[in-house]
Specification:
alpha+beta, Chitinase A, domain 3, 7-stranded antiparallel beta sheet, two-stranded parallel ribbon, flat, TPR repeat, TPR_rpt, FKBP4/5/8-like, FKBP prolyl isomerase like
Amino acid sequence: MILSPGLIDQHSAQRMDGWMDQTLEALHGNGDHDDNNVTSWVSVCPRGLWKVQQERTGMESQQTVSTSGDDAPCASISRPRMGSLCRVRVRLKADGDVAESLVSENGIEKLSVTEFTDSVAQAFPRCQDSVLQVPLGDWTTLRLGEGQCDITEACVEGMRAGEKCEILISPIGNGPDVSVSNPTEENLPLCATVELKAFTPGKESWQVSPAEKWEWVKSHKERGGVRFRSGDVWGAADSYSRALKLLITLYGHIREVKKQGQEQADEQKDTNTGDETQHLPSANEFKTTKAELHSNLSLCQLKLNQPERAKASAAKATQLEPGGTKAWYRLGQACQMVNELQEARQAFRKLLEIQPESPAALKALKNIASREKETNAQLGLRLSKMFS
């Protein structure tokens, strides 16, 4: 899943490293449509990229969530936004055809705001053997924007309460594994239904405070680390990309705080915006976090055999934090993979300047010397045959 255009500023998005946007052609939201109300986009799953085609099948019921004390329903035209708790159900098409509807007799089900908002998003690990990533057939509560279930979130972003849609999912590209070992998802392409029962209000991009965005950045960064350690490299890359997109929107706020100086920043702590300023990162923390995210994204891209993108991400990390040893090592690795041995040597030598006697750098330089020696020997042999 990718962040919808409403979650980030257009100007900021243009400045963002476009890796995920280029990899996941931003078809959702403003994507491919046809006369049959079909939308297509590309989503991230633990084993790679999958194309999703969505067709809305209309309002199965007018289920709503109350947002006021008198149980008045929310406007039917509203849709989930960033941070919305969404009550959703995903079923394979075969199951959905025979399952009974869980709406009331008159087709309208009210869900009180107290009943729903007192609940929290359900936590369940992303499964390496699943494409849909949600417990099938059960009502599940998701928090929109977290990237827990890429395909489901992408569907829900454009749905209304009570709406139902059908999706067709098929693997694309050269993902690490396009087989589906989950017995309930054994037939490709997959056909499933997604239902949105109710949701709590979320926020548009301009409504999300800088402090809230910073919390989202830290959450995505932490989630990316958890996913990477579990072997979900695609999911980790998605999390780091989400964090970078949100971080970019904070640049103006960080710059203003830095420009005002510490004295004025201290004065603001006594105003309504002071608490928010206290929860924003310093300029150095902002730069360090951005460098770490680019470096982590570079590692994911190396694992996904995308050396050119890994090189670009690592280079950005070294520019932001010249003393970052991991970024220099990953830059050297990426240069090796694209056979730019001179650039790789420079990266590893820079690593040795920062961390003398680094075993990894010394080993890499030795490998480069061996490759160059082998290349020169092969070239000499070809030249000797030409003139013999």
